Amino acid sequence: MQTIDHWISGRTHTSTSGRTAPVYDPALGQQTKAVALADANEIDLAVADAKAAFPGWRDMSLAKRSGIMFRFRELLNERKGELAEILTSEHGKVISDAAGEIARGLEVVEFAIGFPHLLKGDFSENVSTGVDVYTLRQPLGVVAIISPFNFPAMVPMWFFPIAIAAGNTVVLKPSEKDPSAANWMAELFTEAGLPDGVFNVLHGDKVAVDGLLEHPDVKAISFVGSTPIARYIYETAAKHGKRVQALGGAKNHMLVLPDADLDVTADAVVNAGFGSAGERCMAISVVVAVEPVADDLIAKVAERMSGLKVGDGRRSCDMGPLITEAHRDKVASYIEIAEEDGATVAVDGRGIKVDGADDGFWLGPTLIDNVQTSSKVYIDEIFGPIVAVVRVESYEAGVELINNSPYGNGTAIFTNDGGAARRFQNEIEVGMVGVNVPIPVPVSYHSFGGWKDSAFGNAKAYGTQGFDFFTREKAITSRWLDPSHGGINLGFPEHD
Ligand code: NAD
After folding, report:
1. Ligand 1 nearest atom to the CA of residue 213, by list position
2. Whose CA is nearest to atom 43 of ligand 1?
């Protein structure tokens, strides 16, 4: 069975740790590969390699660095089909969804290609007579990226193109559940001309993550994953003096007002709730229906759900399996919890007929009505194809409910009332807001990030904030001496 090894110094590094984890094809329900899990020596090796590559990469001309970034973009665009197949074979999402994920990552690569403009500093001439002040934006050094299973290509691409374009060197620790995409992207970047050691992939579990968090030569951590781990990453990295951004989990609400177009809204609920089997940090997991809209909306959503085809993502299906058997079972257990808590299971995804292997990690789309906010179905991030409906009596009650959630990643309002939408965008305590847009992931030249327990640290991912995170500013005050600058004066410098 194939073992996925580290990518260090521009080539595969065969692990000697003696530890591996299984990698499954979720649609087959079978282990197809193993992934190496790094030990302390391998962590040191990857970081040392990135550190050694840093001075050369930092000092390479902007023109040459741009050329390499551009070639990477071209190769990725030409060969993205290969990457989509890898994503489907390890994550399970359908091929078209995998292609969509790559397209959103490619967008960040394209944004990063404009880095010479974004790295320009400021210049003030004659701040004092004959004295100029200017700023430089310089890279940090070795930066580590730790990514989740649900976007094995896009989430790393939120960070590494910008980190690398800005002159840093990278150690990427991808999810051990679907690790191959990281190697594929790193190898492609090498093919594009990236010097060895600028982009390393270190596979592993908590041992690798902790090693990176504590390593004195790692200057910054970009993390994406669940909230408890994000909080841990944020606190541990900060304790070790590192710059850190840690994006966490979510529970995204869609507020539906009585004047909304219910057909368009029902389409959006189905697309945003069940795309990628609900394993998206921006998936809609709670519909907050302002009465009297709930009965009609639920009927329309249920009708659309009955037409969804669940199966192997390589076939013509709408929704694939979940990532592992354990995760599938955990997600399915929330349907039982819903029943125990007195909610109404309007559409039950258990036992659904699929177009795929018997052992795949299947769970069909599920809709649960009359969910109480005290139920774990409402409280927990389920991260699967389950949409909960909470009925409320007013816009105000809906906003209060959303603002009381500890999460603040994404939210959406569906309405035809511009005033209500405007009020919502002002009052809602969530980092990314959609107005009649169910998954409001900002484009690459804006920045991505939630509020509250959905993100720790003050820098969002990509966009100009990405460049802020991966650079530090240096301010230079300069004068070229002439005799008039002489004389002794111990006072604090004033300008003349
Ligand atoms: P996860 O938190 O289990 O794992 C994320 C990363 O952390 C992985 O690389 C994993 O190896 C590592 N990790 C896991 N346990 C660890 C531990 N105890 N100590 C140190 N490192 C550890 O998340 P996941 O299940 O891979 O991904 C799904 C989660 O990610 C969901 O909660 C989802 O909402 C979140 N997510 C958030 C965003 C966002 O932008 N806010 C985007 C994608 C996913």
Report:
1. 20
2. 281
Catalytic residue ranges? 281
Closest ligand 1 atom to Cα of 147 = 9
What is residue 485's predicted lDDT score, i.e. its pLDDT?
Answer: 74
Alpha carbon distance 265, 436 (integer Å): 8
Average pLDDT over residues 8-24: 98
Instruction: Name every protein residue with a CB atom under 6 angstroms from any ligand 1 atom.
Output: 146-151, 155, 173, 175-176, 205-206, 209, 224-226, 229, 247-250, 281, 381, 383, 409, 450, 454
The CA 247 to ligand 1 mean position distance, Å, reads 9
Strands 123-128 and 131-139: antiparallel
Tell me the per-residue pLDDT of 359-388, one tens digit each, with 9 for 90 and over: 999 999 999 999 999 999 999 999 999 999
| Confidence (pLDDT) at 371 | 98
> Which domains does the chain possess?
2-248+454-476 (3.40.605.10), 252-435 (3.40.309.10)
pLDDT tens digits, 109-165: 999 999 999 999 999 999 998 999 999 999 999 999 999 999 999 999 999 999 999
Q: Determine the pLDDT at residue 148.
A: 98
**Cα of 408 to ligand 1 centre, how many Å?**
17
Cα 150 to ligand 1 centre (Å): 9
- Which of 93, 224, 235, 380 to probe ligand 1 with, by most ligand atoms within 8 A of CB? 224
- Ligand 1, atom 10, lies closest to the CA of 175
